[in-house]
Amino acid sequence: MAKETIEVLIKKAVTGITFVLFSSVTALGQEVGKSPWGPADEIGSLNMMSDSLNVRLFSNISSGKIYDLGVEYFVGMPGFTELGDPAYQYWLTHTPRGTVVGNTTHQGEAVNKKVSYTGDAISMYTHTGTHIDALNHFGLNGKIWNGVAADEHLSDRGWDKSGSEKIPPITGRGVLIDLAGYKGEDVLPGNYVFSLKELKELIRSQQLQINRGDIVFFRTGLMKYFYHDKAKFMSNSPGLSVEALQWLVEEKGVMLLGADNLGLEALPSGDSSNWLPGHTYLLAQKGIAFIELLYLEELAAAHVNEFLFIGLPLKIRGASAAPMRPIAIPLKTYRRG
What we know:
By secondary structure, this protein is an alpha/beta fold.
């Protein structure tokens, strides 16, 4: 199994299965969740943010150090091309030489030789690089979070409910859990499933505090390969067990989750009726968004386990995900009161 790439694993998982939302397979006993914040809710657990909490968090900043948690975008970067999604592409639309030869600005050769004009464009799948999954990304039995039906709210121009444009600027108390560091590994081994038992032991041994409304990130160590070895990055898919995700949500009351891997949960799931059960559980049943492909190496190296998180997703109307540039600022020891 360790020798198989994530491309092979995912292809095996999706063979004969269409996108989970429209699949003929019905997960036993699973239906989309109804929001405790009312029938108009489109952001789920992000409703837990508050102005008063922001004031307390900002007043507890321990230093001016800012950690950048986003990855760079570059041609050839790891991504979901194995599912047929477009790879990240970058190209120039204007170059200084082209401007001079083509005189595209119609200002004359003298001006065009003096002023160097460069312009460029990109094309990519919205789930590329550091991004947040919107609540319309996964559903169950033809519906997404809060009972929203695809037949009524999904058009050729995307969803008119729970798209990434609805995700507000995100702030909160962040907690870093270094799974790889706890296991004494640079990178968790191939497709390692981090269990609930291990997670509880890690939290207890490192005296970490997870409060209701917190933002919790997990480091698998995979970013070691992201820039330099795409094959190794794509051949390894460790992550959390679904049981661990359920405990974080139902017992600890977390607001947002994230990790440095492709899917937060481990792949393959081992569930023949649902190839990404963690996704459907979090997004469709519990209304909890999460961030993938976070860069957590510097934060972990500095042993920063508690921080103010700020994340600003792009407002792409109707989209199932949005690229974002998240940052972390160390906090003094803080307990939500």
